Amino acid sequence: MYRPLPTICRRSFSMSRLSNSSFPVNAGLEVEEASPHVYHVRLNRPDRRNTFTMELWKAMKTTFDALAEEPKCRSIVLSGNGKSFCAGIDLQQGMGEMIKMLTNNDIEVGRKGRILRRMITTCQDGFTAIEVCPKPVIAAIHSHCVGAGVDLITACDIRYASSDAVFSIREVEIGMTADVGTLNRLQKIVGNDSWTRELAYTAKDIGADEALKFGLISRVFNTRDDAVEGALALAKIIAEKSPIGIQGTKEVLNHARDHSIQESLDFVKTWNMSQLQSTDLRDGAMAAISKQKAVFEDV
Question: Which Gene3D superfamilies does the entry mention (predicted)?
């Protein structure tokens, strides 16, 4: 049994919509400060089930690059408005530009390949921006999470889901190889090559219980709202910790995933040569000794 996380009293903090020009407007995203130091990013194409277009991929990178540099931001929740978390690629709008280019006989094959490479890089960069963002990102998933939706959540640090969540790696159904992160990250998340290949080769749907069993998600909630509230509550707990400690922990965990143990041990030694000189260590230690709650400065 999971112990329930504390809930956030939304009335205790006024939701403030960000007006900073670093955040895209009308690009399929909403960004709000949900509570002090906790930012909430919502996919906002509900009429298209939050499917991805090139504009939305570009907006993801712009948004998470900006949040990475925002001193007040310490943790992030990612969710989706409407009936689905994310139903993949928008085949009408998102694929239209690519199909038009591919069927243009005036463009020779080599140059088509270069255009495709740039397009794929744009999509990859949109989700990699989440992975390299120094602030932990918690996905709150509901209903459909397919294709690009799975690519998206595998770039997040932590994944919560409602009981109605459905996951699927759908790319083989439309004649393509998943190229935006799922095949590169899912194995490392779940540690099960056979199960990853089963999903990737069959495009079958799996429910929240199976996703929990194999470690794709870490908690299941009754409803979408419960999953979002749980993610916000966890983000609030993280935001109260030392931002120096949290951001360093994410950096070291990401490094350890892709390197040997010894390489990672050497990396964290070098990291802490500077970071242990932060006032966060002093303030945290003094608060612990005096049995008070530490208050840390923004980074």
Answer: 2-enoyl-CoA Hydratase, Chain A, domain 1 (3.90.226.10), Lyase 2-enoyl-coa Hydratase, Chain A, domain 2 (1.10.12.10)
